[in-house]
């Protein structure tokens, strides 16, 4: 548990990071929502701010005056138990409040929070909610990157976000495979540092022998799968995946473009030639699974990943696992609105482990459980194999 | 036909008007597209500019350099024969080009056009296309008003566009009904002033006796229909209208809101109390028809409207007619891309006559044929009755 | 107006005809509904029977006992004002009542009707409703043919309905074009024989000079259009038509199949080779319009068709006209449920004139106005040209 | 492994059972497909027959003549690797082949199979495929019951299938809860009797302490949840479940009807009053989960169910578990078309354990893994709780 002083540092750094990420944007980039999974950047900035006003200031800062009575309605995301909300598909239809209004709202709430944190001794519950609020904003920082990438990468003009942004690290690892023996392993978050409810409840699992790859699958390897007709071989795919591949004419990872016979990929640094040694990214679980089938291997379960992760490097991609997102044994959903944070998504989603180039510095750990629907590709998703 | 000098005046006035309309907007307001029928204001500004570059400068200004090679793709609307285009539903997903880029594009093309108009004697064909380009931009000015109204009126914050904007003129007419006798009437555009292809081909029609109302149906009258259960009486509605009413739970004209028991309506001047003496607006053809059924009357045909229009005042609302949008006898579709302007819409739409508070000063006449799908309501649409 | 005795003959003949049409079916053929526009044959048999029980027996046969209290619910089609109904898309999901139950229901109602007609002097109103009931059933006989054709022609086994059924008459006409001069013509139903409300109200129209083809466009002519790339040339199509062509990959008239390089067409007599001299059929209005554009001609209006029809042969195809389906001047919608018969469809549909190989003997006349949505093709629809 | 003689018995019994189930149907009941999840009974009868002709007779009966070359196309279900198939949604649109044709097809294939089985010594592979074919047909027998129930229960006339059919057994158990201690348990199919690939690969799992209910949740208990507002309390539901509840206005288990203030349920024996002591059925996973949340308990995992099942009675309902359908460790997908049997469904589905009143006598076992999407309700699905 962080001290109040440490929390002030975390809070300030977090608030600043969100604004730094957006500093490369034009006003127009803050507004649009090209697909339902993407939110307008201005919405992320407002929503993370609303969280602090709704769950901290309203409760713990007695004399706090709301910045505006309509903010809750506009910036609530999915807390069904906290009043009405703008339906998700409508976010990109709202030109107001404006970007400059939102920055004023941010400043107002940041200052009110700092006044509270600097002048009042807060109890554990309050400190806990503030810490969650910081981690919540860090999650949205990752979404800011991926949503901005979608907004710009979906544009026929392929504008650059930031020329300095490096997306495609090459992996130079000596070792190929890591072996673990069958037996009992402990899974779940152990320290008293911050974690989400879905990581809690340390428990044993029994794993069979397995070998896990030290390297993520690369662009070059995935290209071999494509060239071998992987997207056309029904026997490699789940039934729902096959429908998806055909309905959307999926023939390559997302953001790949063949230009004059050569594969390029859109990155936050603009369109670049495909780097064969870099880990493949923007693939769905379906594609990761089909690739593994083609290699005669499989994806790791999240337990296998967690048990072996200290032996390999990770952090450049969120990695798909074979595991469906389910509660751990003895999972306890928090009371009240914050109970909506994780538990209600525990169906029809796959767990991802790791972290990506878009992940905030302090925002991943080996027990972190990310989750997405199996067909989604706009996150920085890759995968490693198990045999 | 306008002289080249008159055309310069028309062109300059037209270009300025579009920018004046947008001068009340925030940057964010230029970007969004809340429904497919609405286009982002920045798209209108770019598209009307692209029209002059594509159809005039490329052809008649030999040394013209394109402002940017990607503009055609982004700003083509429906000219299928002029290359690819951004599909209509995707317009609101594009944050780039930015608003300031578009204003630079406008300036560049306006200046190039003026240079051409001031320095070269243009032939009739060229002058004709430029005149169409001005009228085309005036059409988009009307759409700018209605699309801006939708963008702001759809926003839960109901921002005002312009406090000075007057939407709801009251009609103080002595006479109620105007009578025309049966006989032959001439329909179609006769002078050699500008008109669209769909107005051409003067021809005779035989009309039976009819009486047409001097006044548009008012808000107060429409409220009586609502209170009499008009929206619930299946026998008043077309079959497709009844499905529409029920699927969308239509219970009042668009932009009407009942607040604390009192009817309000969103206008470009913000939310205001309903004015019972003002003509009703933002009704679909379906609603106009149902109202007429309920009164035991009917809507005029476009021929009846044109034959009688010089006896009544019009211009505050586009008026629904009973007429489907069809070609006049001997209708000739122009050759080439401009042939796509009108003819291809001549199915499943209803003709509107008149003009509205959003219509540009020189942009209506008694032969003008506007047309929309029968369920649409975001235009300033009203109606008058015939018995 | 028919005498009661003539009506008995009409009634008996009509009831028998429906059953004769179905005598070629297997029980399973009575049940399915492959698209929403098609109704299961058993539904047609039940619905036309329900009409007589609901609108005649219930009102005029005092002691009539309903065959079954649930029939109204199952067999009501679109009379919204007469209680609930099975929604149209659900008709093909109902295995009960069975076919044999429906034949019992038919016998019961036919006998009750004959008892009424033979034993009681009915007033004009009653006789009028019975005559409508007969014509209503004749309309459904045409739908029986076209729906049966869809049911069998949609089946990958292409079963034959009846080996004797002749669909494709060849036209051997000397004269090509018929000329009419400009002037006033009278339109509408004049005799006191039966007609629908939408044909009534004789009125004058002024027509310009035109020439109308003596022949319907043939399969061979339409094939030339296809081979000239007609389906790929955007400038020939309405905007909505172009979307339809591309969304459904329309490349030929409905029921055409290219087998081993040769065009075949499914008919009620099974798959046969395309007959180039026979009139083309199963084309939409959109395709008829595009063909006319390609020929530099146009479709007739319904007034032109009616004014010239006595000079050409018709009756092998329903013919698309350019006219939208609208009320005639002074159209009066009947009171009550029967008022739902025609008027409520007068939007977004095109008028067809003529009659087809599926039309019942006494069920067409030169004032008859059929109507369908412009994209529909399962009727026996063809067209002739005007220049 | 069954001997060839035992297999003959199993085969004959299986073929007869399918036909016995259908013996209560009218011809029309064999044809319809009211929702995509339901197949027409005649399709089940044909498909299970096609399986034997495609995978056994074609391969092992050298001189076998196909009954009809089109059967494969019509009766293939999901074996994408075995040629074209009728898309699932189109099954209910096919009136041909007729029911009597299908019975001839069945007789032909049954006789050919018996000739093969009686006159040739088959190798293990062949015997294995035939055994799978029998179990495959038993699976379809269960679907026959549930699909017939949907076909009749969806009909507004609520026809009875069979007056003798008992759906709602009452549970009279002394013990309420069964306790298992933490430790290693073995999961998976051990004997050499028949099982599917997805049950194979015996492996250890570590389970924490848990208590599992001896009884399935009853209608009466579920009614308490309904009356306490369970369907209206967002905090009890998954996010996707909440959307589902609201989009489809779900307010009770499927087949429940409130008539004159009293709850009834449609059963294969017609509409009956709700039996409070019988286990609830036709609930989705979402509803089972929400009920468990409301009770402060949870659903068992499939491992917990398998580890404890020998201590409780089961078999009257398929029971939802918390487990997503995933491969067991070391799962091996069979080669070729039969490899499509199970593996390709291992995403977005939940495992069910147990068996129901519709399950064929020899067609369940404690390792059997059924699976459905979480929102489906037309199977006989219930649940028990864990705390």
TrEMBL record, chains A, B, C, D:
Limits of the DinB-like domain: 11-142
Residue ranges that the Swiss-Prot or TrEMBL entry lists as coiled coil: none
GO annotation, biological process: ergothioneine biosynthetic process
Membrane-spanning intervals of the chain: none
Residue intervals of the Sulfatase-modifying factor enzyme-like domain: 175-307, 315-387
Keyword annotations from UniProtKB, A to Z: Iron, Oxidoreductase
Pathway of action: Amino-acid biosynthesis; ergothioneine biosynthesis
PANTHER family: HERCYNINE OXYGENASE (PTHR23150:SF36), SULFATASE MODIFYING FACTOR 1, 2 (PTHR23150)
Protein name per its UniProtKB record: Ergothioneine biosynthesis protein EgtB
Annotated organism of origin: Christiangramia oceanisediminis
Gene of this entry: egtB
């Amino acid at each position: 548990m962080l001290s109040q002083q440490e929390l002030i540092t975390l809070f300030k750094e977090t608030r600043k990071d969100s604004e730094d990420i957006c500093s490369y944007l034009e006003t127009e980039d803050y507004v649009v929502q090209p697909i339902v999974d993407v939110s307008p950047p201005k919405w992320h900035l407002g929503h993370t701010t609303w969280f602090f006003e709704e769950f901290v200031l309203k409760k713990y800062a007695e004399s706090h005056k709301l910045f505006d009575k309509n903010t809750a309605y506009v910036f609530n995301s999915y807390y069904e138990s906290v009043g009405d909300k703008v339906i998700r598909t409508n976010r990109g239809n709202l030109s107001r409040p404006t970007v400059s209004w939102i920055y004023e709202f941010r400043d107002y709430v940041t200052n009110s929070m700092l006044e509270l944190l600097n002048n009042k001794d807060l109890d554990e519950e309050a400190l806990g909610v503030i810490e969650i609020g910081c981690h919540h904003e860090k999650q949205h920082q990752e979404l800011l990157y991926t949503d901005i990438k979608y907004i710009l990468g979906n544009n026929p003009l392929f504008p650059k976000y930031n020329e300095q942004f490096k997306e495609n690290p090459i992996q130079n690892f000596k070792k190929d495979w890591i072996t673990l023996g069958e037996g009992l392993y402990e899974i779940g978050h152990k320290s008293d540092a911050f974690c989400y409810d879905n990581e809690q409840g340390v428990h044993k699992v029994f794993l069979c022998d397995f070998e896990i790859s030290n390297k993520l699958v690369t662009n070059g390897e995935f290209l071999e799968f494509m060239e071998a007709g992987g997207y056309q071989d029904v026997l490699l795919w789940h039934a729902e995946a096959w429908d998806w591949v055909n309905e959307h004419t999926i023939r390559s990872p997302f953001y790949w473009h063949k230009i004059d016979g050569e594969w390029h990929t859109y990155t936050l640094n603009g369109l670049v030639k495909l780097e064969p040694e870099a880990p493949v990214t923007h693939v769905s679980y379906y594609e990761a699974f089909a690739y593994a089938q083609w290699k005669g291997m499989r994806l790791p379960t999240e337990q296998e990943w967690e048990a072996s992760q200290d032996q390999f490097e990770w952090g450049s991609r969120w990695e798909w696992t074979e595991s469906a997102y389910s509660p751990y044994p003895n999972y306890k959903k928090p009371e009240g609105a914050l109970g909506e944070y994780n538990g209600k998504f525990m169906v029809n989603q796959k767990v991802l482990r790791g972290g990506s180039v878009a992940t905030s510095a302090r925002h991943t750990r080996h027990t972190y459980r990310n989750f997405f629907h199996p067909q989604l590709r706009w996150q920085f998703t890759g995968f490693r194999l198990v045999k």
